[in-house]
Structures are given as C-alpha cells and as structure tokens.
Write a structure and sequence with these properties.
- By secondary structure, this protein is of the alpha/beta class.
- The chain has a single domain, classed as Alpha/Beta hydrolase fold, catalytic domain (Rossmann fold).
- It is built from 15 helices and 11 strands.
- Helix 6 packs across helix 11 and helix 8 crosses helix 9.
- The longest helix has 20 residues.
- The chain is globular and about 60 Å long.
- It starts with a helix and ends with a helix.
- The site of 2-acetamido-2-deoxy-beta-D-glucopyranose (NAG) has 10 residues, from helix 10.
- GO terms for molecular function: hydrolase activity, acting on ester bonds.
- InterPro entries: AB_hydrolase_fold, AB_hydrolase_lipase, Lipase_euk.
- This is Lipase.
- Belongs to the AB hydrolase superfamily. Lipase family.
- Keywords: Glycoprotein, Hydrolase, Lipid degradation, Lipid metabolism, Signal.
Length: about 400
C-alpha cells in the first residue's frame, strides 16, 4: 500500500512535469459559496504580488448572527497548509470550523490562498503552463504572499495589526516571513501556529523514507526531473482517485485510511469523515514540487533553512555553499504554538527543537489527547474543544 501511494505520487509528479496537461477543474463549491451557503456575508478580494501572482482572499467581514457590521472588528488572517486551500477553515461547518467561530466571536475573518492553489492560479506575466510559474516554494509564500495579504488587509480595514493563524505550511510561512522580513513583527497582534512545521529530523511519516531519500539532497536525477512542476496537480484524474478513495459512498475507503499513514501514526479515530469528504472536493489543491522538495531537504539536513540548489547555485544566490538558516530569534510577535503527539510530519521532538530556537515564543501548548494527529487540526470531530476554542480565547485575550 505504501509503495503504491508513493508510486502514485511520483507518477502524478512526473506526469505533470512531462506532459503539462491542461488543468481540468471539476465543478466544485468554492470557499466563498460555502460561506454564503451557511448564511454568512462573504466578499472575494484579490491581491497581486510584486512578482505578478494573483492571490484570492475570501472574507467573512462580520457575523449575520451578531449583526456587528458597524462594530469594531479586529482582522484575522487564516492560512492553509501544503496541498490545501481556504476550504480547510470551513469544512466542519459553522459549529466547529475556526473561520466561523472567529466570525461569531466578532472578528473580521480573511482566508488566504497561497500562489499555485486552485484559487490563486494566475500570474499577470507568466502563463500557468510555463514551468517558471511553478518556480517558487514556501519561501516565496512566506516572504512575498503573506506580507502582500497582510498589507492589503491593513489597507482595507484601516487597522495597524492583524491576528494570524496557520496550519502546517501555514505555520512555516509565518516563521519564514517574520525571520526574513522582521519588520512584519509589528503588524502581527498575535500568531497561532497549529501543527507547527520547521524541523523534520524525527518525522515518522513514510513520505520521508520514500520521497525524502529521493529528493532530499540537491543534484539528484529525481530532483532535476521534478523541480519547478506542479506537485499532484488538481485535475480530473487525481480528483477522481481521491474521491473514489475518500468520497461519500466510497467502497474503497481502506485506501483513504491508509493514506493517513502519511500524516498520523495510524490514527484515524478523531476524523470527522463528513468534513473530510467536503475537503476531498478541492484537494489536493495545487502546489509547486519545490514546496515538497524543500520540506524533504529539511528532513535530510535537520535544519530550518532556505532551498538548497547545490553548491554552485547556492554561492551565486546566497554567497555561501549551504543555504542560510531562518533565524527564529528574529521573531518577536506574540506567538502561540499548538502541537500534538501523534503528528507524523511535525512531531513532538521536532517541536521541541523549534521551541528551543524560538526565543520569544509566548506559549507552547501540547494537545493533551495522545491520538490527535496532523490533519486533526483541520478535520477532527473534537478540534473545537481541543484547538479552536483555545485559539479564539487566546485571540480574545489580546483584545481586552
Ligand atoms: C463534521 O463535518 C460536518 C460537515 O461540515 C459538519 O456538519 C459537522 O458539524 C461536523 N461535526 C463535528 C463534530 O465536527
């Protein structure tokens, strides 16, 4: 099964690289439509980055339950993980998902979408079919996309700071932003890192063993083949496979359960299956192969540092043989970390390393339930009590 998954991953990758298929998006409910269907007001905004990417932000400006459109509403930006998009903050519905809980607590909620995902697949100068479109990884999402979103939100709302919450890669890009562009610390009122990912030395997921070994060090054949392509493209074929395995009425849900070994040490018990089925419609959502390769490099090097292009290009780009580290001591914004024991990607020992280097971290919260895994922060039946209520409470504490 594991081999099969890996083969599929590689196939999807290679397929995308070799043939550049037309991207066929199936009909799906967008984040915006989903928000409206639950009765909330919704706005769609686009932000163009300095390098031309057009990013979509969905906004829940206020709660129809509170009718607080004329009250002061502090802004919160929510940022999704790898392979994901803004749907991850909505899929468990108004009673459980963080976006709605924050709206109902009086916040102006903005849902970000990183370059490359189904909501942010446009660039004003580079065509989607040009490999240059995919020449980025989460370094650029952290140093360009998130700052652009924050500046846009501050401009639109007239506020001077935002609250930020991210899941998985949404935490990596926060760390990258604040260490590489420390002036953004002043624009963050508080940051909330769900399943924080920076170090991967102890990653238990088979993805490290099978994929990391192939692409974790620069210069290899797989590396050359896979760089600058779309990683698991969001097209009809991939989506059909995901839907067959994990969708409603699936007769093959052992595949879906098995896919969970990538994120959890066998833990599937907390999953809200209905929520997962909602997510499957728009996932995997599209990302660059470089994002995956960069993570595998962190696994191989045990360091949290920039993309490794090999000695020659590193010297040109960075003026040194090895890529520079992200300096976590530069992060001074009030930041809360929420991590879990059964996370096979960003597990407790690697969180320890993060905490030890994150000198100004405000809080290191460990989810007390042992079985809680990486995806549970997004799709667990019990994530409201174990995660989201805490996040809302912490954010409230900065508003007095
Ligand atoms: C599970 O997800 C469904 C679909 O969004 C939602 O309606 C339901 O309230 C969720 N239940 C829990 C306990 O999270």
């Amino acid at each position: 099964m594991r081999i099969f998954l890996c083969a599929l991953l590689c196939l999807a990758w290679t397929f995308a690289g070799a043939n550049k298929p037309e991207v066929v998006l199936l009909d799906f409910v967008t984040s915006g439509e989903r928000i409206r269907s639950h009765g909330y007001p919704m706005e769609t905004h686009t932000v163009t980055t300095e390098d031309g990417y057009v990013l979509t932000l969905f906004r829940i400006p206020y709660s129809h339950k509170l009718q607080n459109q004329n009250a002061e509403r502090p802004a919160v930006l929510l940022q999704h993980g790898l392979f994901s998009n803004s749907d991850c903050w909505l899929s468990s519905g108004p009673d459980n998902s963080l976006a709605y809980l924050l709206a109902d607590a009086g916040y102006d909620v903005w849902l970000g979408n990183a370059r490359g995902n189904i909501y942010s697949r446009e660039n004003e100068v580079i065509s989607l079919n040009n490999p240059k479109f995919w020449h980025f990884d989460w370094h650029e999402i952290g140093t360009i996309d998130i700052p652009a979103m924050i500046d846009y939100i501050l401009e639109e709302t007239g506020q001077s700071q935002v609250h930020y919450a991210g899941h998985s890669q949404g935490t990596t890009v926060y760390l990258v932003m604040l260490s590489e562009r420390p002036e953004y610390n002043a624009k963050i009122k508080s940051g909330h890192l769900l399943a924080p990912c920076a170090f991967f030395e102890h990653g238990a997921s088979p993805v490290f063993k099978y994929v990391g070994a192939l692409v974790g060090t620069p210069g290899g054949v797989w590396n050359q083949l896979l760089v600058d392509t779309e990683l698991i493209p969001h097209n009809a074929l991939v989506n059909r496979f995901a839907d067959t395995a994990c969708g409603e009425h699936s007769e093959h849900d052992e595949y879906c359960r098995n896919a969970f070994v990538l994120f959890a040490n066998g833990g599937y018990q907390n999953t809200n299956v209905t929520s997962l089925q909602v997510l499957i419609e728009t996932h995997p959502a599209g990302s660059s192969s470089n994002q995956g390769i960069h993570y595998m490099q962190l696994w191989a090097s045990h360091e949290f540092r920039q993309y490794d292009w090999g000695t020659k290009k590193n010297r040109q780009l960075y003026g040194q043989d090895l890529p520079p580290d992200y300096d976590l001591s530069k992060i001074t914004a009030a930041t809360h970390s929420y991590s879990s024991h059964n996370d096979a990607l960003c597990g407790p020992q690697d969180v320890d390393t993060l905490v030890s280097q994150f000198t100004h971290l405000t809080e290191d919260h460990r989810i007390p339930l042992q079985s809680f895994n990486h995806l549970d922060f997004i799709v667990a039946k019990n994530m409201k009590e174990l995660v989201n209520d805490l996040v809302v409470e912490r954010i409230n504490s900065y508003e007095g």
